[in-house]
Design brief:
Blueprint (H helix, E strand, L loop, with lengths): L7 H21 L13 H9 L5 E5 L5 H5 L1 H9 L3 E5 L7 H26 L6 H17 L2 H8 L3 H25 L3
Antiparallel strand pairs: 1-2
Helix pairs in contact: 1-5, 1-8, 5-6, 6-8, 7-8
Length: 185
């Protein structure tokens, strides 16, 4: 069995690499720019939300029970629209530092879990391709495959989902490359 100590470098190096690659994909390339649209009446919507809502996740229209969902008044609200989910953050300037810090911790956790999967299924001396296959598929699942569920259940656009799947595939490939390269021989 592969020793944990020999996986520390691949875990941290792959996390750093994914952090850098994700920064390039999101800050330099522009294909995510259209993932979110602007409301035509943004100022009115903002004013209405400020009157009574705070940080959290909201559904429009909102129902507290299945019985309420079937009521004529609620059915009418769904038919009239809009129907959607609203996620509100705490008001204030967006500070990228905390988001980036949490993302980096997430990449470390994913890389650690990928090390666990690889360690559980591969032996010392496994070939680069064997390691790459296990880590890349597991990594793609970890980094990307929540996105289709978001399109199915939360209404995220499928174009945003396909971009997230692509991003996750890139992150998984870089992670698998690092693990394959540094796998104990």
């Amino acid at each position: 069995m592969v020793e944990w100590s020999s996986l520390v470098l691949p875990v941290f190096l792959s996390a750093v690499l994914v952090f850098i690659v994700s920064s390039i994909l999101h800050a330099v390339l522009t294909y995510h720019n259209k993932d979110f649209q602007k409301l035509a009446n943004e100022d009115e919507v903002r004013a209405a939300i400020r009157k009574g809502n705070s940080r959290g996740m909201y559904m429009i229209p909102s129902c507290e029970s299945h019985a309420e969902k079937r009521s004529p008044e609620t059915v009418k609200k769904f038919e009239e629209g809009p129907v959607g989910l609203l996620v509100l953050r705490t008001p204030g300037a967006i500070k990228m530092g905390p988001f980036l810090g949490q993302w980096f911790v997430y990449t470390i956790v994913v890389s650690f879990l990928l090390a666990y999967v690889a360690r559980s299924t591969l032996h010392p001396g496994a070939t680069y391709l064997q390691v790459f296959r296990v880590v890349s598929v597991s990594g793609w699942l970890a980094y990307a495959w929540q996105s289709p569920s978001d399109s199915i259940w939360k209404g995220q656009t499928w174009s945003a989902t396909f971009k997230a799947l692509f991003d996750g595939l890139v992150y998984a490939a870089f992670t698998a490359g690092v693990f394959g390269w540094l796998w104990p021989r």
